[in-house]
Automatic annotation (TrEMBL), chain A:
A Pfam family hit: STAS
Organism: Eiseniibacteriota bacterium
Superkingdom as given in the UniProt entry: Bacteria
InterPro entries: Bact_StressResp_Reg (IPR051932), STAS_dom (IPR002645), STAS_dom_sf (IPR036513)
Annotated transmembrane regions: none
Domain called STAS: residue spans: 1-112
Protein name listed in UniProt: STAS domain-containing protein
PANTHER family: RSBT ANTAGONIST PROTEIN RSBS (PTHR33745:SF1), RSBT ANTAGONIST PROTEIN RSBS-RELATED (PTHR33745)
TrEMBL record, chain B:
Alphabetized PANTHER family for the sequence: RSBT ANTAGONIST PROTEIN RSBS-RELATED (PTHR33745)
Domain STAS stretches: 165-276
Protein name from the UniProt record: STAS domain-containing protein
Pfam families, per database record: STAS (PF01740)
Organism: Eiseniibacteriota bacterium
UniProtKB/TrEMBL annotation, chain C:
UniProt-recorded name of the protein: Anti-sigma regulatory factor
Domain of life assignment: Bacteria
Cross-referenced InterPro entries: HATPase_C_sf (IPR036890), HATPase_dom (IPR003594)
Gene3D superfamilies, A to Z: Histidine kinase-like ATPase, C-terminal domain
Record-linked SUPFAM superfamilies: ATPase domain of HSP90 chaperone/DNA topoisomerase II/histidine kinase
Domain (Histidine kinase/HSP90-like ATPase) ranges: 39-138
SMART domains, sorted: HATPase_c
Organism encoding this protein: Eiseniibacteriota bacterium
């Protein structure tokens, strides 16, 4: 299942809509990193509200996206992690260190506006 | 539910005997009921109730009792026991009072059967053989119903206490406070975490102050759990500030090697709230008069 | 009896990354049927995801067997992850945080142990690896 990526102002927004296989995750990573360059995006938001499990592979891949995007000049925010999912992740020791997290899309956009000094509302 | 003992087909006279017992109990209803109510008073049972209430209750039980024997089913009695429990548990009636009361009725009725059949000991034996299992089943039904209701009430109260003891308070937009008071065991720690994480999403909180001034000490597993909670809150997008760490808790955290970079701590709750407001971009300006509400 | 409604056993063959998703979804359904809270069902599903991925990474093929179990009046879910791959050379080492031979984070087995109530791993180079974990409904 492919994850749609939308461009909004200087940001890319990827909204996960169902459970993802490892291959889907890697495809998402590659697509985002490529599009950050194409669009010279300043920020990336990955909305994982629909994910009911985030295991070590998914968390590791999201962390990779954040690091690669940062090397290409964009800040990444993961938004919408569910309470149960967060609870399981921390038990596993998956804390997404070095990656910003926000409650939802709105909070993620506000975070990016603040940290990149640009505004998405233009 | 039916009395198996009463449906014993090998003793065809048993049903007839029970009919005799029932008519005896129906005919002597007034006298036996009064006798029973008097014995309840003597035994100092149901002290939370007035004499009139006890007599009214005794009437209801007596009739359900006779109904249970006559119809050989416990359904009416079960419904009554449920009703009795719902009425009396909140008034502080104890299990031994309810059980004692039902056993007294059993004795009062048994004595009256003795008196009636004492001239024919063989018949008396058979009457008692038929009566006793029924009487015991009735006593068990009423007592079990009462205990069940009590347990339900206790569970409800425990749940309420637990929720009261870990309230997630919304102080202002996007700021939650979780004051924890009392001992934290692993079960409570887990409930607390679940409540907090759900609270963060429900209130769209950005900053949470967990105040543990009211917690004297925690063991290593609860300390670890606290750290997990802080990390889980961050994954949701909320910052956690922990305030009010006692010297003992600080020692525990250091001893188990908590990575303190992952946890912001501020001395007291007031300082924690100031820090939280700072994070939210509010500035606190002292005013001459209180701001209008 | 309520227990009769619960599927006694479910088996998921793991040979592609799609099977990882299928196994953990099946696990969540069974955990929910057993009356686990959604938070605990998520812990179970996450553990299954890790175990299934280990099978794929290290043995390429294997199976996840899910079964409801009882002890006294407690009910639980047992997950067995079995493969006949190369086995784990040093189980103690594999249980250390941060250890991994297939790259990535290497949080797999120690993480699974923290998610579940009971954990047991048997492995040898000839017969492969079997990881058995259980979660009890509290």
């Amino acid at each position: 299942m492919q994850v749609p990526i939308l461009k909004q102002g200087p940001y890319l927004i990827a909204t996960v809509q169902s459970a993802l296989t490892d291959a889907d995750m890697m495809q998402l990573r590659d697509a985002l990193v490529a599009q950050v360059g194409q669009h010279r995006a300043r920020g990336v938001i990955i909305d994982v509200t629909a994910l009911d499990v985030m295991d070590s592979f998914a968390a590791g891949t999201l962390q990779d996206v954040a690091h690669m995007a940062r090397l290409r000049g964009a800040e990444t925010v993961i938004v919408g992690i569910q309470p149960d999912v967060a609870f399981a992740m921390v038990h596993m020791g998956l804390t997404l260190e070095g990656v910003a997290t926000s409650l939802d899309l709105e909070a993620g956009l506000a975070h990016l506006d603040l940290s990149t000094g640009v505004s998405s509302h233009r | 539910m039916t009395f198996v003992e009463l449906e014993d087909g090998t003793k065809p006279t048993s049903a007839a005997l029970m009919r005799q017992v029932v008519s005896h109990l129906t005919e002597n209803r007034t006298r036996l009921r009064e006798e029973w109510a008097r014995r309840i008073g003597e035994a100092q049972l149901l002290t939370a109730m007035t004499r009139e209430e006890i007599f009214a209750e005794a009437t209801l039980i007596y009739d359900s009792y006779v109904d249970a024997i006559a119809t050989r089913t416990l359904e009416t009695l079960e419904a009554y026991a449920q009703d009795l429990s719902e009425r009396t548990v909140p008034r502080g009636v104890e299990t031994h009072e309810v059980l004692g009361m039902v056993l007294l009725l059993r004795d009062v009725l048994a004595r009256s059967l003795f008196a009636k059949y004492q001239s024919d000991s063989e018949l008396l034996d058979r009457v008692l053989d038929a009566y006793e299992p029924a009487a015991n089943a009735i006593a068990i039904t009423v007592a079990a119903g009462f205990v069940r209701e009590r347990e339900r009430v206790i569970r409800e109260q425990q749940e309420a206490i637990r929720e009261l003891s870990t309230p997630v308070l919304r102080v202002r937009e996007r700021l939650l406070i979780l004051p924890i008071i009392g001992a934290i065991d692993p079960l409570r720690a887990r409930q607390l975490t679940e409540q907090l994480l759900r609270g963060i999403r429900a209130h769209r909180a950005k900053v949470v102050v967990i105040d543990i001034t009211g917690v004297a000490a925690i063991d290593a597993s609860v300390a670890n759990h606290l750290v997990l909670t802080v990390e889980a809150a961050r994954l949701l997008g909320a910052r956690v500030i922990v305030t009010g760490l006692s010297p003992e808790i600080a020692q525990t955290l250091v001893k188990i090697g908590v990575d303190l970079r992952k946890m912001s701590t501020v001395g007291d709750l007031e300082g924690g709230i100031e820090e939280a407001e700072h994070l939210l971009g509010y500035t606190v300006v002292p005013t001459a008069k209180p701001a209008p509400a | 009896m309520k227990s009769a409604e619960v599927a006694e056993e479910a088996r998921v063959t793991v040979e592609s990354d799609r099977d990882i998703v299928a196994a953990r979804m099946r696990g969540r359904v069974m955990a929910t049927e057993l009356g686990f809270s959604s938070a605990v069902a998520t812990l179970v599903a996450t553990a299954i995801s890790e175990l299934a991925r280990n099978i794929l990474l290290y043995a390429r093929r294997g199976e996840i067997v899910l079964a409801s179990v009882e002890r006294g009046d407690r009910r639980g879910l047992k997950v067995v992850a079995r493969d006949d791959g190369p086995g784990i050379a040093d189980v103690a080492q594999a249980m250390q945080d941060g250890f991994s031979t297939a790259g990535r984070l290497g949080l797999g087995l120690p993480g699974v142990r923290r998610l579940m109530d009971e954990f047991e791993v048997r492995s040898s180079p000839d017969v492969g690896t079997t990881v058995t974990v259980k979660k009890w409904n509290s």
